[in-house]
Amino acid sequence: MILAALLARYLMGTVCEVDAANPSQIAAAFDEASRVERMISTWRSDSELSTGRYSPELTSLIRNVESWRDKTGGAFEPHIRPLIDAWKTRADGAVPDAATIASALSTIRTGDAPIEEGAFGKGYALDRMLTKIDGDAVLNFGGQLLVRGTAPVTIADPLQRDRAIVALTIHDASLSTSSGSEKSFVVNGRRFTHILDPRTGEALPPRGSVSVIANTATEADILSTALYVMGREEGLRWANAHGVAALFIDGDIVASHAFPKYERTH
C-alpha cells in the first residue's frame, strides 16, 4: 500500500489521522467526522443526541447499536449514562452505594435512559469518513484503526501503552482495542476502570485488553467493549460461538478461532 498524504486533526477529544492518496478527500473525511460529532456527541448540549431531535440517520444508528444489547446478553448497553453519572467516570471517579447503583440499573432497564456514545461513536465516525475517500486508506481515530486495502498494524501492551506486543496484517477491516489501563481511578486503594458492566452496575477492574477485528469500525468498537465487559473466559466463548475475531491480552495472549495469524513482538 503506497499512500501520499498523512494528515491529522483533533476530533471527539482525541487525535484522528488519515493516510490516503488525495489530500482533498482527507479533508472531506475530517469534515464528515466533525458532522458526526455534532450529531452524536453527548459532550455538546446542541447535538442531535443531546436534544433528542433525531434525524433519520441517527434513528437508524441508534436502532443498530441497541440491537447489540440482546446480541451480547447485555454486556453492551448504549443507555448506560445513569451508571456513568453514578460512578462519576466523566470526572475523577467515585464509588456509589448499592442503592445508587440499583437505581441507575432500574433506569437503564426502562429503555428510556440517556445514551452514551463512547462505545460506538468513533467507530461510526470512521465508517462515515471512509465513504469520503477513494482507494486505499488507513484511518486511526484515537487508536482505533480502519483499513481499506491491506496494512500492517500493532496492538499495544496494556501495561505499557507505548510498546507494541502483537503485530499482524489486516485487510478491509477495523481493529478496535478496549483496555482498562487507558482510563482508571483509585478510591480507597481500589483501582477501577471507566468501563462499566451494565449487567451488574459495577465498574470493572483493570484486566488487560481486548482487541476485535470486524468488517465495520462500528461493530469493532462495540464488540471490543462488550468482550472486555464479559472478561476473557466468557468473552472467548462468546467470540468463538459468534465467529468474532478477538484477542485477549492479560498476562498471556489468547485468540479466538477467527482471529488472524499474528506475531508477538517481544
Q: What would you say this structure looks like, in words?
A:
The protein has helices spanning 23-40, 48-51, 56-71, 81-87, 98-109, 121-130, 217-230, 232-241, and strands at 5-11, 14-20, 137-141, 144-157, 160-179, 184-187, 190-193, 209-214, 245-250, 252-255, 263-264. With 266 residues, it is of the alpha+beta class. The protein has a single domain (5-264), classed as Roll (T-fold), CATH 3.10.520.10. Strands 1, 2, 3, 4, 5, 8, 9, 10 and 11 form a 9-stranded antiparallel β-sheet that branches. It has a two-stranded antiparallel ribbon with strand order 6-7. Helix 1 runs antiparallel to helix 6 (121-130) and helix 6 runs antiparallel to helix 7 (217-230). The mean pLDDT is 95.
Mean pLDDT: 95
The name CATH uses for the topology is T-fold
Helices and strands: which structural class? Answer: alpha+beta
Order of helices and strands: EEHHHHHHEEEEEEHHEEE
CATH class: Alpha Beta
So, CATH architecture? Answer: Roll
**Range of strand content:** 25-35%
Using the alpha-carbon principal axes, give the shape.
Answer: globular
Number of strands: 11
Q: CATH H-level name... which superfamily? A: ApbE-like domains
Rg result:
18 Å
How many distinct domains? 1
State the major sheet: 9 strands, antiparallel
Uncertain residue segments: none
Q: Helical element count?
A: 8
